[in-house]
Design goal:
The complex is a heterotrimer of chains A (497), B (258) and C (193). Chain A contains twelve helices and 23 strands. Chain A is elongated and about 110 Å long. In chain A, strands 1, 2, 3, 5, 7 and 11 form a six-stranded mixed β-sheet that branches. A six-stranded mixed β-sheet of chain A has the order 12-10-14-19-16-17. Chain A has 497 residues and is α/β, with parallel strands linked by helices. The relative contact order of chain A is 0.08. Chain B is an alpha+beta fold and 258 residues long. Chain B has one domain: paralog of FGE (formylglycine-generating enzyme), CATH 3.90.1580. Chain B is 27% helix and 9% strand. Chain B has a three-stranded antiparallel β-sheet with strand order 1-4-8, with no helix packed on it. A two-stranded antiparallel sheet of chain B has the order 2-3. Chain B has a two-stranded parallel ribbon with strand order 5-7. The radius of gyration of chain B is 20 Å and the shape is globular. Chain C has 193 residues and is α+β, with helices and mostly antiparallel strands. Chain C has one domain: Glutaredoxin, CATH 3.40.30.10. Helix content of chain C is 34%, strand content 21%. Chain C contains six helices and nine strands. In chain C, a hairpin with a 5-residue loop joins strand 8 and strand 9. The chains are: A alpha/beta (497), B alpha+beta (258), C alpha+beta (193). Chains in contact: A-B, B-C. At the B-C interface, helix 3 and strand 6 of B face helix 1, helix 2, helix 5, strand 6 and strand 7 of C. Strand 6 of chain B pairs antiparallel with strand 7 of chain C, so a sheet runs across the interface.
Chain lengths: 497, 258, 193
């Protein structure tokens, strides 16, 4: 009896050790296969990766085996609009900011070709955060203009990763727009959704002020001091608003691949009117649910998913809110479809949040700037540009009809104050207006702050529009007049003390 | 007859001298280069030298390849210059409309630039010499800490690279040298001494196996983007490479009279 | 007659930029033997770089006062040789050129030769003029800088030339044998037959 027991004990001990060992082995094998993402050598014919221009995303790879994927990306230095009437010399991956979206599957062997266009001035390279290897590829891809570099890596980790240029001085290359996203799909692929979009935030540093017209150079001091002039989605104001807004319908699922190229700022990413059902924080594998605002580090990315229920314009912002409304960090997702009063019954507050971005993009402003620089600005062009700017800046209080709010904001329509001195609006925009005034027989006692964010040309166009609307006397104001008035006010200030 | 020949020779010499490039003497001295002299980040000592006041032009380079046909783009050995060598010229022996004679010559390799300088009894400047002369603005020998100097140079980097470049003959700097900034990148003799790794972020983590004596690799003055970018540019090149914005000028030693 | 005239035409203007090796007219354009470099080896024997045309060459650059990497370069080159068969080893030349002509005289090179017990049949340690050092390093894509304290910062690479002097492979792996590089050596030997 004893011997049998002992035999059983020994046998079971042996068996359990073996089983444990085997289990551990299996765990180790599957764990290592998962963690290292090495599914063996590539199979099948090499595939040329489909690269897309933002905000579009390439279709899912639809593969369940590792392949060799050939990626060809060209660096192009080109002058592009950064805001209406403002251009900037961007350095781009593939001609856009952010650069082209790359999509591969975990375990793929990627053969990366980086070309530096012969018309470029600078050498460039690329660091892909999804690469395991020195510098993320930067060491192997240092390329002079007119040349091409090639390196190969295996995409061991799934996730959404930033890529960027890492040539000295790195900050400047990134600040000029050299970043993008590479998605390394999990082996089982991502669940299907109705729309996938690509959005990337960046901060930009110019010597001129916000919306100061013309070709703006990069400002190194501002970049080092981390004082951006613009904070933008996809490299330009208006890149994702108006007629370029992202689109969807009600009752659809949306997945946004949101990156932050930096170079300096962290993003507090939020979609006004929506809650993220799923967030892959920092692009990692763990999912967080029911999130209002998510942090995206500089040089990081995230995947957010949500479901649309109610039609309207949903505004993507960096919730460090001055960046959204004073530096341009604003994009729009326009959802069409039947209203659902049980979920939301209110009217849209377009004009408050969206301002000038609720209309089709400020084409008239660009037109007016072009004409002005050619010396041929007409009154018509000023009025059109002024109207668009008015809608964004002034209509919030004075209404699009110019009638104001009784007892609170004075009317601009057929205003006797304007008729008495048609140049007065210039001073009011520059200095602001506080205290008691009487307009069209009614008293108003309120505070209007100086519109210090407006440039001379913007004030000139707005005032010209107001003078020619709603029964006001007409006439036009030039940017030079505004500049003179501004200079006179600055000189007069010390005397007031 | 002999007098005529002699006069003819004298005339030719005179004309050659009149066409000869202008060089100015530059004093040298101790200099805080972005590339330190050794691991203790010491200043470098630069001996006095002469520098060409203007970059080499298309016209001058055309004369050179005419006199030395092995440097023509249809005859040159591929080891000395890549395929794009003088690509914008209309032909191996003519400039054409896209490249004006008075523009700086670009799309030249390091070997070709060296050979030109030798033909002019000169050499390429070293990085330190070039850096020393280029540190000046119109009125000061060393203007590198002036934000205006940096902004002006960064402004050139921000402008698109035109199909050729602008005319030479910009305003002279403190030493009387023109066009060191704002026109073209320029070859230096020791372009492959800059030892900047392809990934410019690991300057503090030198791979001792890659760069022997790697302790001296740190670049000083990292805030000076204007100079950093020039170092990065030269480090990305191989000797046979050419680019559309890369040209050169020559330097000469100063003879020590005994 | 035609080749002679062509050679003369070629040679004449080249006098301005230094002498040329013979038979340059049929040398492939990518060959480094176009560089007119003269060398003196550890035995004081003078030759031209282009004289090595005809057999594949393993080339690198070093200097004898180098405290760290250069001994490793020699080791690596030896081990790379050992990865070949004895027959293959006989058909590959090994050339190590000094960055430092001032201090690396032929006598000094000879000392190192003895110390490291280098194989006479295949190894050459050579000294070339300072200006040529810059050119050779440039064509081999090796960076170097002379420091004030007389040390030399330099990158390290083993470069493989085919029998016509074209660069066909290179490796940055120092301290271990690079199997891909060895394969390239063997391939170069096969095509040299």
């Amino acid at each position: 009896m004893n011997t049998m027991l002992r035999a059983c004990a020994v046998a079971s001990l042996l068996f359990s050790t073996l089983a444990l060992g085997a289990a551990a082995d299996a765990n180790r094998k599957s764990a290592s296969a998962y963690v290292h993402g090495d599914f063996g050598p590539p199979r099948g014919e090499p595939i040329h990766a489909v690269l897309t221009t933002p905000p579009m995303v390439p279709p899912p790879t639809g593969r369940n085996y590792p392949a060799k994927v050939i990626v060809e990306l060209e660096v192009i230095e080109k002058e592009l609009p950064i805001s209406e009437g403002v251009t900037y010399m961007f350095w781009t991956f593939g001609g856009t900011v952010p650069g082209k979206f790359i999509r591969v599957r975990q375990g793929d062997t990627v053969e990366f070709h980086l070309r530096n266009n012969p018309d470029n001035k600078m050498p460039h390279n690329i660091d892909l955060h999804g690469v395991t290897g020195p510098g993320g590829g930067a060491a192997s891809s240092f390329t002079a203009p007119g040349h091409e570099s090639q390196f190969t890596f295996k995409a061991l980790n799934q996730g959404i990763y930033v890529y960027h240029c890492a040539t000295a001085p790195v900050g400047m290359h990134v600040a000029n727009g050299m970043y993008g996203l590479i998605l390394i799909e999990p082996p089982e692929g991502l669940p299907a959704v109705d729309h996938e979009y690509y959005v990337m935030q960046g901060d930009f540093y110019t010597t001129g002020k916000y919306r100061e017209k013309g070709l703006q150079p990069f400002d190194m001091e501002n970049a080092i001091d981390e004082k951006p002039t613009y904070v933008l989605f996809n490299g330009a104001e208006g890149s994702l608003t108006g007629d370029k807004a992202l689109t969807a319908k009600t009752n659809e699922t949306i997945r946004l691949f949101v990156g932050n190229g930096g170079p300096n700022l962290v993003s507090s990413f939020h979609v006004i009117g929506e809650i993220f059902d799923r967030v892959q924080q920092e692009g990692g594998t763990r999912v967080q649910e029911n999130v209002q605002t998510t942090l995206i580090p500089a040089g990081g990315a995230s995947i957010v998913e949500f479901h649309t229920e109610v039609p309207g314009s949903y505004v993507l912002v960096d919730h460090s809110i001055f960046r959204a409304f004073n530096k341009g960090a604003l994009a729009i997702l326009k959802v069409d479809g039947a209203a659902d009063k049980s979920i939301y019954s209110g009217k849209e507050v377009d004009s408050v949040y969206l301002g000038d971005r609720s209309e089709p993009n400020l084409a008239a402003v660009t037109q007016a700037t072009k004409a002005a620089s050619a010396g041929k600005l007409t009154q018509e062009e000023q009025i059109k540009a002024g109207q668009q700017l008015f809608t964004g800046t002034c209509s919030v209080c004075h209404q699009t009809s110019g009638e104001g709010l009784p007892g609170v904001f004075p009317p601009l329509a057929k205003s006797d104050l304007i008729a008495a001195d048609p140049k007065r609006p210039i001073q009011i925009l520059l200095k602001g207006l506080t205290g008691k005034i009487t307009v069209n027989g009614k008293d108003y006692n309120s505070v209007m702050p100086p519109m210090s964010q407006l440039n001379d040309d913007e004030i000139a166009n707005i005032v010209t529009f107001v003078l020619n609307s709603w029964g006001n006397p007409g006439g036009r104001v030039s940017a030079e007049e505004v500049a003179k008035e501004r200079a006179a006010q600055t000189a007069a200030k010390p005397a007031e003390h | 007859m002999r007098i005529a020949v002699a006069l003819g020779a004298a005339l030719a010499l005179f004309m050659a001298a009149a066409d000869a490039a202008e060089y100015v003497a530059i004093g040298g001295g101790r200099f805080a280069s972005v590339l330190p002299a050794d691991a203790n980040a010491a200043d470098v000592a630069i001996a006095p030298f002469r520098l060409r006041t203007e970059p080499v032009t298309n016209a001058e380079f055309l004369d050179f390849v005419t006199a030395h046909p092995q440097w023509r783009r249809d005859r040159i050995a591929r080891v000395f210059a890549e395929q794009r060598y003088l690509e914008r010229w209309q032909s191996a022996t003519a400039l054409g409309d896209r490249t004006l004679p008075s523009w700086p010559v670009t799309q030249v390799s390091w070997f070709a630039a060296r050979a030109f300088c030798v033909s002019e009894n000169a050499r390429l400047p070293t990085w330190n010499e070039w850096e020393f002369a280029a540190a000046a603005d119109a009125t000061r020998a060393d203007a590198r800490s002036d934000p205006a100097w940096r902004e002006a140079i960064l402004g050139w980097y921000a402008r698109p690279s035109a199909s050729g470049s602008d005319e030479i003959g910009g305003s002279a700097n403190f030493y009387g040298v023109r066009d060191l900034h704002g026109l073209i990148w320029e070859w230096v003799d020791d372009f492959n001494a800059l030892l900047v790794a392809g990934d410019s972020r690991d300057q503090n983590d030198p791979d001792r196996l890659k760069f022997c004596g790697a302790g001296a690799l740190n670049l000083r003055d990292r805030e000076n983007y204007a100079v950093l970018m020039r170092v990065a540019m030269l480090s990305s090149l191989k000797a046979a490479d050419t680019t559309g914005s890369l040209g050169f000028r020559c330097a000469r030693d100063i003879e020590v009279k005994r | 007659m035609k080749t002679l005239r062509r050679a003369l035409l070629f040679a004449l203007p080249l006098l301005f930029t230094g002498g040329i090796p013979p038979r340059a007219a049929d040398l492939p354009g990518e060959s480094i033997y176009h560089l007119p470099i003269s060398m003196v080896d550890q035995d004081g024997y003078a030759s031209a770089l282009a004289d090595r045309r005809g057999t594949p060459q393993l080339v690198s650059m070093f200097y004898t006062s180098c405290p760290y990497v250069c001994p490793l370069i020699i080791e690596t080159m030896k081990r790379t040789q050992q990865a070949l068969t004895p027959a293959q080893r006989q058909r590959v030349g090994v050339l190590l050129v000094s960055f430092d002509p001032e201090r690396d005289t032929p006598q000094r090179l000879h000392e190192v030769y003895q110390q490291r017990k280098l194989d006479k049949a295949s190894w050459t340690l050579a000294r070339i003029e300072a200006d040529d050092v810059r050119q050779l390093a440039a064509v081999l894509d090796i960076q170097y800088r002379l420091l004030a304290n007389r040390e030399i910062n330099h990158s390290s690479a083993l470069v493989l030339l085919d029998s016509e002097g074209r660069i066909v492979a290179r490796t940055d792996k120092i301290g271990e044998v690079d199997p891909d590089f060895v394969a390239s050596v063997q391939a170069a030997l096969r095509s040299a037959r």
